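#struct-pred

JT: dropping the chains for the assembly here, can someone run the whole complex?
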Amino acid sequence: MLKLDEQQLNELQKDLDAVRDDVLADLGERDARYIRKIVRLHRALEAGGRVMMPFGFLPPVFVAATVTLGVAKILENMEIGHNVMHGQYDWMNDPTLNSQTYEWDTVCTSDSWRRTHNYEHHTYTNIIGKDRDYGYAVLRLSDDEPWKPWHALQLINYVLLSVFFQWGVGLHELESEKLRRREIRWRDKLSFIKDFGRKGGRQAFKDYVFFPLLTLPVAPIVLAGNVGANLIRNLWASTVIFCGHFTQDAETFTEAECEGESKGHWYLRQLTGSSNFTGGRWLHLLSGHLSYQVEHHVFPDLPAHRYPEISERVQGICQKHGIPYNTGSFASQYGTVLARITRFSLPDPIRRKLENRREQPQAI
Amino acid sequence: MMLAKARQNRALRWLGRQILNTPQPASYFDPLAEAINPMWVQAYTPARVERIFTETHDTKTLVLRPARRWGGFQAGQHVNLGVDIEGVRRQRTFSLSSSPRLWQDNGQITLTIKRHPGGRVTNWLHDHLEEGAVLGLTDAFGDFLLPSVAKPLLFIAGGSGITPILSQLESLAAEDYRAPVTLLYFVRTRKDIIARETITALAARYSALTVRILTTHDNTSPRSLNGSDLDSVPGLTARDVFLCGPGGLMDLATELLYQRGIRDSQVHCTFFAPPTIASLSKEALGGDVRFVRSALSVDSTGDATLLEIAEAAGLHPQSGCRMGICHQCSCRKTSGTVINRLTGKPSGPGEESVQLCVSVPRGPVTLDV
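RK: done, full complex below.
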């Protein structure tokens, strides 16, 4: 990790705080109009997808309905749910956009998400052993974790995690790895399991029971379309999220180097532990502006549609302090994620040999 | 229509909650409805502004037509009015100034609103609200209500405190209430009289009503309510008294009425302005406030309310009227004692619901915010 002395860290904090203050002072009508427009778009897409679905016996309609519902779920999860729960729109005093009461269209309960994501992940970002989002206790993504034979199959695990992403996220707080190691007991998790069961049941009931039954003669088509829509959302959400912290150059940290850290150090860690990807307006929207993961991690509670506007200033601050700003095209960033998952599935000696071989030509 | 029915049916509501992940399934499609016709919104009762007219240099009356599903009101009650100002939803409490009959017969209500110096909402309503706009209403509430059996009444109003009383006088006149009714209406100067024509017309057609309008600042030496104003009211001690006005007038009136042997149970008060702290300064106020859910702890001093403390710390708890009426900001206090600004009374030390906007910490307080 890049080392900055205390004075530099204070300076960094001052620079970033200034950006934050400017945005906060400017929040208003424009932001409210923006998020309400997105909510409107989501409602229209969801209603459209659900209404079209029973007509899915016509193949083009099936595709259109499934994609529409999938995109609706993506918008709701990424640009509305995730961002609202970060408190980005709490200042609007609108009970339907309140971080503490919002409940989103996915298996994970909002309460669990607020604990594991808003608190754990955003506080302890990329600290191995503390940020359980780093590899989701399923994948080995750095050599801070010793290699075990089952890591060899982690590319398969990764695909499974992506396919069932909403269930993985929903079960994240179960801390199965700690249960396995007997650090915690099942009974500690009873209330979590109850909440998970209720929300998971509700989500499954809606997409896999209620809507198919409502349109009984074409139930299998509606069921298939709803499964498809959830799959589209799962794959996309997983991909976007993996691009946020597991790219080639996204750094990891140890508990020791973060003990008693200052706000400036926290900022530095957010800047170097996150990665962006570039793309068109729709790519940013569908990623919930997590394509600006760096800006998001520095300012998690600023309305996300502001990230593109402040990106240049954040880059300028990075440049000033000699901090790398990690970005690249969507394809290339995702490529490095897959490479990381693959590399760390190998035992260390083999991985090092391969890495050396790859690096040698550059050295010559 | 379908949505309105869904609101009422419990089974449908349950189903809506399962399917739409929201405690208010009926309002799930509000964002779409609002774009088509703002009167279709379900989250609150939409009300169209049909007319705005000027009462005095600083007071306007809004004639509103709420959606038909609105529950109506009794004379003397208030509503919370919601408006979006610069992207922020703000709620303030206003008294209904029209009689319930106007709602029953014409589907209209009126709110009479004085410009509050420095007030964000009243100034916005005066400067930016236009006819045709749609505002949000809550159900009516409040217990500033007329007695169900006829007894002699005395109304003491100060300034814009006349608004709920206008509604009450209209109702009394409409039902030809058979007991003496007196209004003592205090205004700063002649030009501050709100609804002068309405009051004059009421007095003319409703013979039981006696009206005295008293100006406090028309002469070189200000005058306020005094004992002889009360003594001039025939059969004073037998009357039920309705008080609405600024804190000073209310305190003075209460004091003078007690001196004349009027019992607590005969006096009805309602607030209409942010309450000031009367006797809190002597106590040790302030303390360490812990917002558990936000993992934040702030030290406060003096008479800052929990809402002010939270906002100063960068939190945005839900809030509404900011004067202890609407309960939008109610939340769980898990420990500590707070003083209620309205009553000056301390809370219990344990877990209970408190209104952030009128609660001042006394010692350390923990909140589930």
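JT: nice. The longest strand of chain B covers residues 45-56. Chain B touches chain A at residues 15, 18-19, 21-24, 27-32, 35, 43, 84, 86-90, 293, 295, 315-316, 318-319 (CB under 8 Å).
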